[in-house]
Design goal:
It comes from Tulasnella calospora MUT 4182. The protein folds into two domains: 184 residues, Potassium Channel Kv1.1, Chain A, CATH 3.30.710; 90 residues, no CATH class. Helices cover 43% and strands 5% of the residues. The strands form two sheets. Strands 4-3-5 form a three-stranded mixed sheet. It has a two-stranded antiparallel ribbon with strand order 1-2. The structure holds zinc ion.
Length: 368
C-alpha cells in the first residue's frame, strides 16, 4: 500500500476534518478497492509521421495538437512533473501539455497504470522517453497525478478538477480510499477556513455527494444569500450532489428562517414600544412590523450574525442603507436598550442557521 502524503498539507486540517482524514488514512491502510477496471492494456498507434506512440486505454484517437480547453491554454507544469524533474516517461494531455512521470510512483497507486505500464520495457535512454497521450486536459491530468503520486497532498486541486476527477475515478481505477482522501482534504480546506474559498455550491455539493454531514451542515450557513430561484444554481445543486434533497434542505432552511423571523421581532416588543401614532391603526402597525422584518432578514444573512446593540442590528438607528427603518423619535424612546439587546441576542442564538435535512449516506460510517 502506498503512503498517503500527509506530511506536506496535513498540518492544515482542523476539527472534524482531522477525524475524517484519519479515517481516510485508516481506510487506505486497510486497502479498500471498490472500483473495478476493465482489463484493457495500452495500445500502440501510428502517428502521421510513421512513428509509434503509446496510447492509454480509453484515450480517443485524435488528440495531438488539439487545444480543447481554453482554461488550460497556458498551463505551466509544476514540479515534480516538469522537464527538470526525474521521470521515465511522458504524459501528454489533450491540450498538448507534457508531464514527466515516474512509472514506479504510479504503479502501486492504480491498477490502470499498473496495466498501462505492464508490457513496457524499462527505458534505457534519458532523451527518448516513451510518451502516453491522454484525452483529458492538463488541469485534470495534473490533478490525477497529484492524487496518485506518493507523498503528494491533493491540497492544491481546485474543486472543479476534483469533481471531474471523481467522474473519472473508475476510468483511472483510483482506489476508493485515495479518492476519499483527496475529497476530504479539499472539502476540509474550505471547512477550516473562516469562509469557504471555493465556489460555495460546489463545495456544498461535493460534501453532500460524499455524505459528509457535518461539513454539509457547516457550509449551509454560508448559503443564505444564494438565489435559490436561479434555475442554473438549482440544476447545479442537484446534478453535482446527485440528489434533489440537497436543494430541498436549503429551501426548507429558508422556510424555517422566514417563520422564525417572528421570534426576532417579538424580542423587540414592538407593541410596547411603538408610539401612539405608529400603533393605533393596524395598517400602520403592520407596515412597521414589515419594515422591521425586512431589516432583520437582511441582517441575518450573515453566516454568524452578531448583535451588540438591538437598535443598530435592526436599523432602528441606521448604520447602513439596507437596515434603515424610518423611525420616529418617540417610538422606542423609553425602551431599555440593554434589556432588548439581550432578548434579541437570545432570539438570534435560536434562529435557524444550518440545514436540518441531511444526506442519507454517511461516507464515514464504514470506518467508525
Ligand atoms: Zn413612532
Amino acid at each position: 500500500m502506498r503512503a498517503l502524503g500527509i506530511g506536506e498539507g496535513g498540518s492544515q486540517w482542523r476539527g472534524s476534518v482531522v477525524e475524517h482524514a484519519i479515517a481516510a488514512i485508516q481506510a487506505a491502510s486497510v486497502g479498500i478497492f471498490l472500483f473495478c477496471h476493465n482489463s484493457s492494456s495500452a495500445s500502440a498507434d501510428a502517428r502521421p509521421d510513421g512513428t509509434k506512440v503509446n496510447r492509454p486505454p480509453g484515450a480517443s484517437g485524435q488528440m495531438q495538437g488539439v487545444m480543447s480547453t481554453v482554461d488550460t491554454f497556458q498551463f505551466v507544469v509544476p514540479p515534480p512533473f516538469d522537464e527538470s524533474s526525474p521521470g521515465d516517461c511522458h504524459f501528454v494531455s489533450s491540450d498538448g501539455i507534457q508531464f514527466k512521470v515516474l512509472r514506479h510512483s504510479l504503479v502501486p497507486s492504480s491498477r490502470y497504470f499498473q496495466e498501462l505500464f505492464q508490457y513496457l520495457p524499462s527505458s534505457t535512454s534519458h532523451t527518448d522517453l516513451p510518451t502516453f497521450y491522454f484525452d483529458d486536459n492538463a488541469r485534470l491530468l495534473h490533478a490525477l497525478l497529484i492524487v496518485l503520486y506518493p507523498v503528494h497532498t491533493p491540497e492544491f486541486i481546485d474543486i472543479k478538477s476534483l469533481q471531474e476527477l471523481t467522474d473519472r475515478q473508475e476510468k483511472y481505477a483510483i482506489p476508493y480510499s485515495t479518492m476519499m482522501h483527496a475529497v476530504s482534504v479539499i472539502v476540509g480546506r474550505n471547512y477550516s477556513g473562516p469562509a469557504p474559498t471555493e465556489d460555495l455550491v460546489d463545495v456544498y455539493t461535493t460534501a453532500w455527494s460524499n455524505g459528509y454531514r457535518r461539513e454539509v451542515k457547516h457550509f449551509s450557513r454560508f448559503m443564505h444569500k444564494m438565489d435559490l430561484t436561479d434555475q442554473s444554481i438549482v440544476d447545479r445543486l442537484i446534478r453535482n450532489s446527485g440528489s434533489s434533497k440537497s436543494y430541498v434542505a436549503l429551501t426548507e432552511l429558508r422556510r424555517q428562517r422566514e417563520t422564525a423571523l417572528d421570534g426576532i421581532i417579538e424580542a423587540l416588543e414592538p407593541r410596547k414600544h411603538f408610539c401612539l401614532s405608529h400603533s393605533s391603526s393596524d395598517a400602520m402597525f403592520f407596515a412597521f412590523i414589515s419594515m422591521m422584518k425586512t431589516a432583520a432578514r437582511s441582517a441575518l444573512l450573515e453566516p454568524r450574525p452578531t448583535c451588540n446593540d438591538a437598535f443598530e442590528f435592526l436599523g432602528l438607528q441606521p448604520t447602513d442603507e439596507n437596515r434603515t427603518v424610518t423611525w420616529c423619535s418617540t417610538c422606542y424612546s423609553k425602551a431599555d436598550k440593554a434589556k432588548l439587546t439581550n432578548q434579541l441576542k437570545v432570539a438570534i442564538e435560536r434562529y435557524p442557521q444550518t440545514i436540518s435535512i441531511m444526506p442519507d449516506k454517511d461516507a464515514w460510517a464504514l470506518f467508525m
